[in-house]
Structures are given as C-alpha cells and as structure tokens.
Amino acid sequence: MMLYRSVFKEASVEQVIERSRFIAHIRPVESREEAETFFSRIRTEHKGATHNVPAFVFGAKGEHQWASDDGEPQGTAGAPMLQLLIKEDLANVAVIVTRYFGGTKLGTGGLARAYTSSAKLAIEASGICRVMEVDVICGRLEYSHFERLKSTQDEVAFQIREVNYADRVTVTILVDPEKRKQLEDLIAELTGGSFQPLSLQQERVKIS
After folding, report:
1. CB of 97 closer than 8 Å to CB of 46
2. Count of structural domains within the chain
3. What is the pTM of this model?
C-alpha cells in the first residue's frame, strides 16, 4: 500500500546563474524537528552565504508546509520552492537552497526560476520514490518450489528481497498487505502446503 511519494536520499547540486552560485540541498525527513536540524546544519556549513532559503512538506498528505525567503524579496524564493514540492506530490522532504550572490540582480522572475530550478535539480539528484507499507514474509521451502515461486512474481506482484541457500531455501518476500492472502494461497498451492513460515512483520520501504 502506497503511503506517499518522497525522495530516496540526501543529495546536493550546484549551478551558477548570472555569476551567483546556487547550491541546493535535499533530504527525506520524518518530522519538522528533523527538517530544522537539517536546515541548521546547512546554514552552519554555509554561514558566509548571502541566503539559505528553506522549504519543507511533512505529513503523508502534505498537510504541514513551510517556507522562508530568508531575506530575498517576498515570494521569490521559498514559496516557489514549496510550490514545486507540492506540484511534484512529495511529502516528508526538506530542501534548502544556498545562494552566494555574484553581483548581478536577477529580478523577481529570475529569482523564482533560479531557486525553483535548483530545487528541481536536487530532487532529480536524490530520486523520487514511493514509500510503501508492506508485509514482510520469511519462510523456508524446497529448491524446486522456490524456482516455481520466482516465475510467478508477476501474478501477485510480490518482491523477493533476500534468499539464503542451505538444505532448503530461506526466502524473504515483500508484498502489499492487501495481496498477502493471495500470495499465501499461491505459496500453499506451489509447495503442496510444505512452506515453513518463520516470521511475518510490517515495515515501510522505498520503491522507485
């Protein structure tokens, strides 16, 4: 079951526009406090910068949103970045764009484009993912049954995450909770009821 879209990992990119350096930093976050800690770290790393413009969206439905222009003309920096995050349908993500002024003013439209394009590059560098809630099934089965199971992945849309080979095969499978019963029935049919379940738990995973 998909919970929301976010980004895979922390990333940073840089571009130069009219001699100003724009360095965009992005990372997934799980709370406002985590976003603020991230922003504080970037501000410390770039304390000599002209501006450090932050924005974040938090909550599975993007219900918590915040941005600041950090001294740039109102509405030309943080707000366009925030709108980009919303347009991309991203949640639990924080982005901050550092600017070192190069001596040439960009105007309100130019500033909005510069900050938005920098944030966009950071999103691309990090990579968009789907955050899914899945059931994780671990169990043992015979080698011949495992080969048959692998060939049926498209039928139920499950994912084999880990395989250990010994006298029997120990396999860890990810599946949408809504399709778990269908998968269990399939495994029972393929193995003649000889599948040995070891554990069942739920976790959140990132999938491209």
Report:
1. no
2. 2
3. 0.82
